[in-house]
Amino acid sequence: MASLSLGLLFNNAYIDDITAPDDSAASSDDEVPLNPPPSTFPLPSLQPKYDTSELAFIAVNTFAKPYGYALTRKRSKTTKKGVMKTVRLGCDRGRRYIGHTREERIRKTSTLANQCPFSMSVRLDLQSDTWYLTVEDETHNHLPSPGITHPVHRRLEYVRKAIWIHDLIRQGIHPRHIITTLRNDDPDSTIQPRDIYNIRGRLIREYLNGRTPIQALMEELPKGGNWIFKYEVDEQHHITALFCMHRTSLAMLKHHPWVISMDCTYKTNRFGLPMLDIVGFTPTGATFHVALAFIQDEKQETYTVILRCLAEAYDSLGLAYPRTILTDKEKALINAIRQVFRLTNIMVCLWHINMNIMKKARPLLGDQIAIARRDNISTRPMTKAQMDKELRQMVDTGWKKMLQGWNRIVYADSVSAFQTSWTWFQAQYSDPIFLPILQYIEDEWLNDCPEQFLHIHTAHYLHLHESATSRTESAHWLLKRELQSSTNDLLVVLQSFERALNRHYADIQYRIETERAKIPTKINPLVSLLARRISLNAIQSVEALIKRYLPKGADGKPPIPSSCDCRSKETAGYPCIHLIIQYQQENRSFEPSDFHEQWHLYELGKAPPIEPLLLIQDPLPVRRRGRPPGATNLIRSSQASSTQQSTQQSTQQSTQQSTQQSTQQSTQQSTQQSTQDITFDRSTQREPSAFEPQRRPPPRRRPGRPPPSAHNHGQIQGGDRGDIRGGRGRGGRGYREGRGGAVASTAGDRRVLRSSQRSQRGAE
């Protein structure tokens, strides 16, 4: 394998030119020399002429790269007029290493410099104003090495690809991804990750131009109106709070300011400042960033500064303050919200409440199960791992049961239902071992902040069915995935966030414009006026209510409350089931005004006119002229099945029952006068008019005795004779059902059978 690696590493063309070391060169004590004997590598052609010395330098190194060496500029000479006339080139390993004389400053490192004597020059021909090459010393004192070990080759490749690499760096692409792209495009690329880091550092230094990152942040980012910054400093002028708002945030907040969510995230910057992320919600169901804030501590005073900056943004846009703010149970933040937004409702994340209760309940459930298992020792042998697994499963089951009971308390729709559920929960967990968890729930949640999460209170808040801060945490991830490291300064952090905000804003606009442009192919007449004006998310919520409750009284459908106390319009901004039923009965379609502005795809008064095509609906079924309601030629859907059923039954009792049933249904439906319940047969024959007599259907012909050849064994024994005697015959083993039951075949039947058999044999 070693020989294979060397063969791949070095080109055979110049391996043959390397002079093997002479045995006589070794010293008497058999020491191996550090450098091999002098050798020569292939030289570039000296015939070409070059317009500039730079082109000659590039051409020489392009030739030298495959042969394992590189050239650098050593010095140059000029004429008396200052015109450069000679550029001396030397091997990049021709330098001499000069170390420090002081012992404590000597670095433990290595060097590529070994005083290689190779040299050549690029000279100017004054007559032709061109450059040509000359060689002074063509020997090298080192082995050839790949181009990746020569900084000159890496630098020349960077010059060719500088613009493309700079664009990738400005887009926030990680150096390792840039290297991967380079290697995919050019497997022989010599650029290393360290080169990309160095290039990025140089670009940052050029951008700063002698300023600190925070100074450049305050000067450069607000240019063009992309950012709004407000900050607060202490006595030493250190920033303690930085409020940041992007132009895309202002554009989205202007249309959707009613419900926002706040939550802190960490590990975003080198200073360890927590970042308060404030987000809102779009009509299409997406999340947008309202503002970002870097704070020194999570105290009420700091939160108050940030929220006042947010209130100024609302005032500058002429917006009313948010109706509801969703957050965790952080006392400092909640107190600051109450201080700045006095009329705003506050909701606490229900998911975090459940997790806090679970953290305290699971150990108690485990203790209870362990005590029960100790009292009831099982005779089944089990290993410790099996016992632990069974214990975890039992704890999970116990927690799910407790969570169901807790949800009954949270989602109780009245004060009496809440009290009943809480009493039931206390009775379920009356064991003294659960006393701490009951005390915790009562003190920490039910007595401290019930109005912030119980349904009997939040049913009066506009919260768009948002009861958790999970979407805020998803917004954290959207920003933090742009960060390549958690140790960047605030300038790099906000530059990374700006790329994410612009991309996310474009995605939100794409969703909104798509819903504005798409024409539904199938739409419920109840929401036909909402297409392209109300978001599909809200329309689907209305259709989900219809699917859940209607048709009324069907199997699996929950009962509809008699009084309209459901608050869908107040909490979510779209109609409730009672209003849906009312509009269905009135054969009306919902208007955009029936929905909260949160779900509008356009501003009020700016929506385009409704497409006439969306207003066209199927014609309503009409009553046919002819016989009055109740006539036999007018068949209702409820009568069709009963009529078919009565036709199939021939007994008098079944006929009377079906007649009574169809008569009752006909009476009820004629009272309702509903045209939607009318169905017609598939025939295109004209129906008789009202003055034409209704012709009775011909009486059923009583079957007689058919020719013997038409009878088979089963028909003779049961089918025909059963009909003759007034019953319903069935072929079989000589029995038929009449009105009185099963009657045996007579002797005459047997004679008919024998006669039939003789006739068949004679015919054969």
UniProtKB/TrEMBL annotation:
Residues 21-44, 621-764 are annotated as: Disordered. Transmembrane segments: none annotated. Residues 549-587 form the SWIM-type domain. InterPro entries: MULE_transposase_dom, Zinc_finger_SWIM, Znf_SWIM. GO terms for molecular function: zinc ion binding. Residues 637-676, 754-764 have a biased composition (Low complexity). Pfam families: MULE (PF10551). Keywords: Metal-binding, Zinc, Zinc-finger. This is SWIM-type domain-containing protein.
